């Protein structure tokens, strides 16, 4: 089966076509039954505005890794389901953080607030509307899963993995929101990374794809061995990009996470390596909504000076190398192995 | 099979036992994996604090109506799933309305806000934590469904009905939150009643139970014929109780819906029947957060005088009678028919 490469560009188009068909169907049936059609439209626009579909691609690669099969309809449905799940998580995240934008457009709760026009209740109602659109994204993600044509045994395996993934993400977000741990607790920061993002970004998508192909436990464990380090590297890089931007300037340095006071690995490493005076400055600056660019620049300088940026990059590199080691020894179909190597580079390089 | 009655008290206890076991298991596995165990605890307390389990009971009665069976484990799991779904919907509803209490205890977002202690961010973080606990309730509701032991054909039917129910409720809530229709639009008010509550309270639970028993289309349609009028009567009564309380005093008159300016059937009927002067007063008073008891009393007096209370009671009665007519002609197992009659009385009488 395997002289050919996996055409990830084509996979992406196929997944997008499933999402487009599904959401157009939802908009049509809403119109017929006097339901508000804009919920489906908002999700279509949200998905159309960008996103790398990394989870969907990993899901399809996981399916190839476990031997794939002739019938592509079920795997594309499961892969598409992951992208609706991501939309759900991001829309709710943006409500909780009151983020202004997402993928270069107004965040959904901000867009709905604007639609409601000037009113004392628009802020609360806009957030309520976005919460419901997010819920629909989750409900529809599961509908895509329920309507994937799978034999009972594989269906059970897919549901068990998907339910575990959803639970992990909620727990990770809960720790992030309600977390009372100290800001220099590296273990706590890594736990948030692991559950909020790492498992749901790489490990579970790979496993879900493999389960659609009827994978055995050995293959599912291999997905974990690849997925955890790659997922952590991906998220740690994301947190690094949020503060420092990318070296090629494609991603601007920002201050969102710093204003939020997010318990990131970068910040925990900074606080642990900083002098007492630097620690005081970091705690004076981070976690305040009014942090300005000058303050953010000072935080960046302290994180550089304390070596936190370098240590964080090192954590990404060691995880990336771990992924390559696992790939080198795993008995995977060569095309799946090459596709995973390519996705690992995409997901961890600083310049994308 | 059917000289015996369906022991609804016993069913309730069995459903509660499934929920308790499931959530205790979630708390235990959270503790083992360093996840926050309080999410499961909050849901256990939420479900333990009350609720009539009307949806779970209707689900089990629907199962009996379609012939039931020997294996009760699957139907109890599906019935329990409905109660976790209700917890999800109520927790999110309370965030959107910023309700202070639920079932005589602080609403979940208020409880979490208190736990966070005095902080400028406690309000937003408490709402975020509650949003995630609500999401977990939905995710776990679906996990209960996924792990119910059903053959593939029935599993598909159950998922299709459940997905339709979730979508309807979200659309109903979306109309309620984002609705821009005029406040005297009786059709819009009935549409909100239908989708936000009526189908999810009676029709879908009956159908889900019937589908677990392998019901044919005729039985599913009978569930609709019973479920829509009963569900509407239930919700219209709920809106009436919110404003006027119950005649036996068990439920106090309130002003929550009036402050919210909810587009209820009661209000739409009032606005349609009121004189122009009364309409102006209603619009001056309803929909303002600072409505006091004196203002609420004036609203009640206008609604009485315009005959809206009486017309609303009449709408409940006609729907209740419709349910009885359907029950009289339906070829249901007698015990299921009697149980449905009893639940119809419970769900529509003004004095409970």
What oligomerization state is this entry in?
homodimer
Contiguous low-pLDDT stretches of chain A (5 residues minimum) are: none
**Strand order across the biggest sheet of chain A?**
1-2
Spatial extent as radius of gyration of chain A: 21 Å
* Largest beta-sheet details of chain A: 2 strands, antiparallel
Q: Estimate what percentage of residues of chain A fall within beta strands.
A: under 5%
Task: Specify which chain pair forms the largest interface.
Answer: A-B, 47 and 47 residues
Helical coverage of chain A, percent range:
over 70%
* SSE ordering of chain A: HHHHEEHHHHHHHHHHH
Overall geometry of chain A: globular
Number of strands of chain A: 2
Mean pLDDT of chain A: 91
So how many helices of chain A? 15
Span between termini of chain A: 32 Å
Characterization of the model:
The structure is a homodimer of 352-residue chains. Chain A is globular, with a radius of gyration of 21 Å. The longest helix of chain A has 28 residues, at 217-244. Chain A is mainly α. Chain A contains 15 helices and 2 strands. The model of chain A has no long low-confidence stretch (mean pLDDT 91). The first copy, chain A, has a two-stranded antiparallel ribbon with strand order 1-2.
């Amino acid at each position: 089966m395997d002289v050919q490469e996996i055409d990830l560009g084509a996979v992406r188009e196929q997944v997008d076509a499933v999402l487009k068909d599904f959401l157009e169907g939802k908009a049509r049936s809403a119109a017929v039954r006097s339901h508000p059609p804009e919920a489906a439209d908002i999700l279509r626009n949200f998905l159309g505005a960008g996103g790398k579909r990394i989870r969907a691609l990993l899901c399809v690669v996981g399916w190839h890794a476990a031997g794939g099969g002739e019938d592509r309809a079920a795997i594309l449905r499961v892969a598409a389901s992951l992208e609706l799940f991501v939309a759900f998580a991001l829309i709710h995240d943006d409500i909780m953080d009151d983020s202004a934008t997402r993928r270069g457009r107004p965040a959904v709760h901000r867009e709905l607030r604007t639609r409601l026009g000037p009113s004392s209740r628009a802020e609360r109602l806009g957030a309520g509307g976005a919460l419901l659109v997010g819920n629909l994204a989750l409900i529809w993600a599961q509908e895509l899963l329920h309507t994937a044509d799978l034999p009972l045994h594989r269906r059970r395996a897919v549901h068990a993995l998907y339910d575990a993934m959803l639970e992990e993400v909620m727990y990770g977000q809960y720790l992030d929101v309600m977390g009372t741990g100290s800001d220099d607790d590296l273990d706590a920061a890594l736990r948030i990374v692991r559950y909020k993002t790492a498992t749901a970004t790489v490990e579970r998508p790979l496993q879900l794809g493999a389960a659609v192909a009827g994978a055995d436990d050995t293959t599912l464990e291999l997905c974990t061995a690849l997925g955890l380090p790659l997922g952590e590297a991906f998220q740690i890089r994301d947190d690094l990009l949020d503060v420092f931007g990318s070296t090629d300037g494609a991603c601007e340095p920002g201050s969102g996470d710093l204003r939020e006071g997010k318990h990131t690995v970068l910040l925990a490493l900074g606080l642990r390596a900083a002098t007492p005076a630097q620690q005081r400055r970091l705690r004076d600056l981070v976690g305040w909504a009014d942090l300005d660019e000058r303050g953010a620049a000072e935080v960046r300088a302290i994180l550089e000076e304390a070596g936190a940026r370098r240590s964080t990059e090192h954590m990404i590199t060691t995880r990336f190398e771990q992924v390559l080691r696992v790939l080198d020894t795993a008995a995977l179909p060569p095309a799946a192995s090459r596709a995973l190597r390519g996705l690992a580079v995409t997901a961890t390089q600083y310049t994308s």
